[in-house]
Amino acid sequence: MDFDLIVIGAGPVGLCLARALRGSGLRLCLVEQQPLAAVQNPAFDGREIALTQHSARLLQHLGLWPRLGQAHIAPLQDALVIDGGTGTPQTRMTISHRLSPKPELGFLVANHHIRRAAFEAAMDAGDGDAPTLRCGQPVAHIHSDAQAAHIRLANGEQLRAPLVVAADSRHSSTRRAMGIPADLHDYGRTMLVCNMTHEQPHHATAWEWFDHGQTLALLPMNPCPASSLPRSSVVLTLPSQQLQPLLDLPEAAFNDEMTRRFSARLGAMRLASSRHAYPLVGVWARRLVAQRFAVVGDAAVGMHPVTAHGFNLGLRSIDTLSRLIRHARQAGQDIAQPALLQRYQREHQAASRGLYLATHAVATLYTREETPARLLRQVLLGMGERCTPFKRAVAASLTGLH
Question: Whole-model pTM?
Answer without folding.
Answer: 0.90
